[in-house]
Amino acid sequence: MEALLEFLPLIIFFVVYKFVDIYWATAALIVCSALQVLYFVVRKQPVPKKHLVLFGLMAGFGGLTIFLQNDLFLKWKVTIVYLLFAAALLIYDKVLNQNLLKKILEEAFDAPQQVWRKLNYAWVGYFLFFAGSNIYVAYNFDQETWVQYKVFGLTILMFVGLIFTIVNLYKYIRPEEESSENKE
Prior knowledge:
Largest sheet: none
Number of domains: 2
Main location: membrane
Subcellular location: Cell inner membrane
Protein name: Inner membrane-spanning protein YciB
Shape: globular
Mean pLDDT: 88
Strand content: under 5%
Order of helices and strands: HHHHHHHH
Structural class: mainly alpha
Keywords: Cell inner membrane, Cell membrane, Membrane, Transmembrane, Transmembrane helix
Number of helices: 8
Pfam families: IspA
């Protein structure tokens, strides 16, 4: 259910774009992002910061896209999100002396510090590549190509990064009983 919740706005964006246009698709994306936040509120769960930040960016840049009838704001939003992810990983590492990737995944994996550090830098690189490639496609190709790249290209690249991460962490999986003890 959570995985569907993550990808639902992207799917709806693509479907609305195909049947109407970029501006209606952007409006649908804003509504879906708001519904994601509302989902946690209704369930009386804390709203993950990621969803709040993404909703704020979506509402801001998406709103400008619709109001000014200029899709560049939406295109820049994607780049900014990836730059924020890269910055968060670097700030946690360099300023807070913590590995954000490790914080997220350490319940399931018991990898050495050097593995976490390499993966952290790999993801910084991924996010910088995603940001740069998105803006390159946005400025050098038509809107249809950019939408295809945003929906399919970046999603596939993200899955490749996740597979790379899992392959690198696989041998460090915590035994089931150790993982359940950490939850208590």
